[in-house]
Amino acid sequence: MDSFPLEIIKQKKILVIGDLMLDRYWFGEVDRISPEAPVPVVRVARREDRLGGAANVARNIVAMGAKASLLGIVGPDEAGEQIQYLADEAGIDPLLIQDQSLHTTLKMRVLGRQQQLLRIDFEYPPQSSALHMLDEKAKALIAQHDVLVLSDYAKGALTHVEAMIAHAVECNVPVLVDPKGDDYARYRHASLVTPNRSEMQQAVGHWDSEEKLCQLAQSLRKKYALEALLITRSEQGMTLFNEQGRFHEDARAQEVFDVSGAGDTVLATLAVTRAAGLDWPQAIYWANKAGSIVVGKLGTSIVSAEELL
């Protein structure tokens, strides 16, 4: 396989639009059960905030050497400020729209001895006025970038995703989508859509053989005029379907510690390698390698160009 094209990647600029969230981790020790209820008492020793959702995709893009602009919606709250701060710190260009009525999406995880004990989610849909501002800003920005990445976590930022894809196609900018739900008509004309195994089953139903999967995948791809469809399949690796056929990468031998954000890393790797001019088989080789590294890390994490090399 050709070497990772870092020097070309450094010249590329990628726009990430999608659902922003803050991943908050509370790490502690558990040495007793609460006298109030049969639950463990966690004595918090350390706290850490990380960029999540679309922001984690942008963070991975920057870690691999490319430039990333991040467009999304936050609320006028501490979590929104923290996303802005962490994005600045990571070297991302944050283009955040503030929705005055919104609470920023926050996922709080409590861990005892590196084991996740509890996750609490705070999430609310954005207002139509904020979505209009996001759509207008997207239209102005897409042509200034080499690749558009759409990170859909079904929190509402990509309500008008069809118009974003249509504009990118007009501007001849490739579009890579991490989808949600079973309505793939929303992603018509995208360059690539990257469902995981369960998301693919949601969209096309179950399959009992590789031949059946190939038939279902190619049918879905052609129906919505997608250049390529990549299914991430956990321990079965990842399989790409395009006009040329089927390309598969086996999962690399790796102890899986935490799959949080692994799809973000895969998407980011595909974005930078395609921006650098690699073909689909080469791009999924590097994406598979990045995915195998990130699942060995705790929580929402990144993979750097140095680690890939």
How would you describe this structure to a colleague?
It comes from Advenella faeciporci. Residues 12-302 form the Carbohydrate kinase PfkB domain. Pfam families: PfkB. This is D-beta-D-heptose 7-phosphate kinase. It is a single chain. The chain is of the alpha/beta class. It has one domain: UDP-N-acetylmuramoyl-L-alanine:D-glutamate ligase (3-Layer(aba) Sandwich). 34% of the residues lie in helices and 29% in strands. The chain has helices at 6-9, 54-63, 78-90, 128-141, 161-170, 197-204, 210-223, 262-275, 280-294, 305-308, and strands at residues 13-18, 20-33, 40-53, 67-74, 93-98, 106-112, 115-122, 147-151, 175-178, 192-193, 228-232, 238-242, 245-249. The strands form two sheets. It has a nine-stranded mixed beta sheet with strand order 5-4-1-8-9-10-11-12-13, sandwiched between helices. Strand 11 and strand 12 form a beta hairpin. It is globular and about 60 Å long. The N and C termini lie close together (12 Å). The mean pLDDT is 94.
